[in-house]
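Two entries, shown back to back:
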Amino acid sequence: EVPYICQFPGCGSGYSWSKSLTRHQRTHTRERPYPCSVANCGMSFSRPDILDHQRTDTGEEPFACECVQKFSQRGNLAIHKRRCPQRSDANS
């Protein structure tokens, strides 16, 4: 049984955590309380993890492979490493 239930008419989705319900409710209200801090961007988001977007605006690529390819998102690096011929486990 889940303690947090969405009260939006016709929804009724349930969640174990209040923050999950809050995030879900923003799909109904379209609330976007997290603005991008990059000048002249103007975008805002419903979730606090907007660093991925800000890296798009700034061009920052902090995640690097041994082959020197760089990525703005950790997930993209992980996908690349599975295919990269220079990955650590391929060299053993």
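entry 2 starts here
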Amino acid sequence: MRCGRFSCSCAGRSPDSRVRRLRPWVPACAGTRSSANERGFTLIELLVALTIFAMLSAAGVMLLGNAVSAQGQVAEHLDEQSGMLRVVALIEQDMSEAIPRISRTESGLLAPAFFSRPPSESEPFLQFVRGGWINLDDSSRPDIQKVEYWLRGGKLERRIYPMVDGAAGGEPALLIGDVEQLDMGFRDGSGAWIEQWQSHEPRSLPAAVRLTINRNGEAPLTLQFRVGLGKADPVKEEGGDA
């Protein structure tokens, strides 16, 4: 077979060799096997991982909740302690400023400078006159005041009088709540402790006072106060000599 001046380059080749055979398309990953590191997670592995994560999350939330609850309890306990310290400081100030001053009741009867009785709903268990009452507004009143302590309905209350003689008392202020029992002790001049202070001498003061407070669910709290550390000169009451 002639192809003109030039010889055909395909001469001598078979017809089949002149046909380019197309290779069938095969995916790149076909016939290959992925290694263990390239293999994905199975459903079971995912479920196990999610379960562990959920358990860790629940434990974290529980720990956080317990921490917040404990912090709240600590703050509440600290607030209660701070309140108790303020009450103790107030009672200590009252006791240290006690003076041998006879007072008068609203009906005009004379009352000893310092006396006690068993706690009851109708009467104060402790009454005395104290000095050192600062007159900030320069009102027409003395620098002494009559103080009462009450135990009513499980509440330890403090009540003051604007005037020592014949005036009505103010509204009681709550000091301590949840009081189940209150016991008292008074130290006389000989150093002995007695349960009640009802001296025959109306101007006499005990050397010290002991209060034992029993509250619901708590250990008894015993407080001791010295009396009359800041004693002033006896003040003359109305209708008599000091």
